[in-house]
Amino acid sequence: MTKSYPAIFLVDDDDVFRMVIGGELKRLGFVVAGAGSGAEAIQRVPELEPDVVLLDLQLPDVSGLDVLKAIRERCPSTEVIMLTGHGSIDTAIESIRIGAFDYVVKPCPLAELEMRIHRAIERQALRRRTNLLERALTPADPGGSFVGESLEFKGLLALIDRVAPTDSTVLITGETGCGKEMIAKLLHARSPRRARPFVVVECAALQESLLQSELFGHERGAFTGADRAKPGLFEVAHGGTIFLDEIGEVSLATQVKLLRVLDTSTFRHVGGTSEIRVDARVLAATNRKLSAMVVQGLFREDLYYRLRTITLDVPPLRARPGDVELLAMHFARTFNERFGSHKRIGPEALGALQRHDWPGNVRELLHAVEAAVIVCDGEEIQPHHLPGGLGTAPAGRSAGSSTTGPLPTLAELERSHIETALRTMNGHRGNAARVLGISERNLYRKLREYNLLG
């Protein structure tokens, strides 16, 4: 049986009914096969793997309920719609408890039967997408990506191993690009929730109204364009972990709702009145000083203390300079495997990497090595293969010396880093956003902020 169109398996002992209904369903575009007995249906279902079975409740040899149980056992992804007479409604309802999708009373209009088949196929597709989503949201243990020998880094890993098996809320702090999301993934992968979803919420990339809708879901008609109810990401993360990245960008209004979820494990859909209970571990990350934001009235003090039950402070790369060489060699091996190359970092290029301050931290180093592996046309990466002038010491500074001029502001460093990413990616904003580890929309906002949209 071809699977190009939805496949229907019609099981009914009435030959005329099978012929008439089967013909009409074929005319509607379905692929239809039939069986006249329960035994035949049980035998053929694993071979046909239909999308939907239309199953008569009253069969001459085997009870329709027994056939239903066999189908659920042998083809759990197949949806079953029971066909029943007026006198068997109670049994049809019992079939739904066993696992049938729906039932229809014979004789029923063809339009109603078609509608119920389409609903069954939609639910089947939704279940498949959900399974795929959960697999995609459950990352493998990324421990092999954590490279470093410095005392600060080893201390962080030891703390992660102690915290991961708990359900405690964790606040991960550190500069942009230092690997906060990777740490969140490691916490999840080494927790009892590892088989359940890991949901990332980029708080800075969403408008306020969209953020609340994404986090908490909404009811139909809650706002313009809400033509159907939608579950929130807290519901998607049920049983697993939700990671709130850039939590410092969240408005005070949303902070109130987040505090309620953390305190009670309940929330309401936007536009809804029913309480929804979830079981999700909350991890949050920020590159901002939340304590200072509390003093300024920009972040709720109660939420701050609730989030920082445990705090993991990720050291910047410049605080562990001995790890630069280890990381660079690790990244070079990774990209050699990906691109099928055999390039190595030469001593002069390695010296240039070690002299750099890495305002973009590990992420900046990662993409510097990636760019060098790509543009290097020989076996050894030289300083001129490094992007953004990394091959030479910064102005006013020699190798091993301290900066003699005034330190640039964080905004100046961020602007410079964005410009470097755009140059490296030949002006392609999507690729530059990927390199920077932010959404394209967030990049556009920063380009506008720094007058770089020309």
Textual characterization of the structure:
The radius of gyration is 29 Å and the shape is elongated. The protein starts with 6 loop residues before the first strand and ends in a 5-residue tail after the last helix. It has a 5-stranded parallel sheet, sandwiched between helices. It folds into 4 domains: 7-135, Rossmann fold, CATH 3.40.50.2300; 143-315, 3-Layer(aba) Sandwich (Rossmann fold), CATH 3.40.50; 318-401, Helicase, Ruva Protein, domain 3, CATH 1.10.8.60; 408-454, Orthogonal Bundle (Arc Repressor Mutant, subunit A), CATH 1.10.10. It is α/β, with parallel strands linked by helices. 46% of the residues lie in helices and 13% in strands. Strand 1 (7-11), helix 1 (15-27) and strand 2 (31-35) form a beta-alpha-beta unit. The model is unreliable at 393-405 (pLDDT under 50). The chain has helices spanning 15-27, 38-48, 64-74, 89-98, 110-136, 151-163, 180-189, 208-216, 233-236, 252-264, 290-295, 301-307, 323-339, 347-355, 361-375, 410-424, 429-436, 440-449; strands at 7-11, 31-35, 52-56, 79-84, 102-105, 170-173, 198-202, 241-245, 266-267, 276-277, 281-286, 310-313, 344-345, 380-381.
Report the CATH C-level class of the largest domain: Alpha Beta
Describe the main β-sheet briefly: 5 strands, parallel
Average pLDDT rating: 85
Annotated CATH architecture of the largest domain? 3-Layer(aba) Sandwich
How much beta, percentage-wise? 5-15%
What is the CATH third-level topology name of the largest domain?
Rossmann fold
Principal-axes shape call: elongated
Radius of gyration: 29 Å
- CATH superfamily annotation of the largest domain: P-loop containing nucleotide triphosphate hydrolases
Please mark out the parts with pLDDT under 50 across 5 or more consecutive residues, or reply none.
Answer: 393-405
Helical amount among residues, as a percent range? 40-55%
> Order of strands side by side in the largest beta sheet?
2-1-3-4-5
Tally of helical runs: 18
Distance between the termini: 57 Å
Count of DSSP strands: 14
List the quaternary state of the chains.
single chain
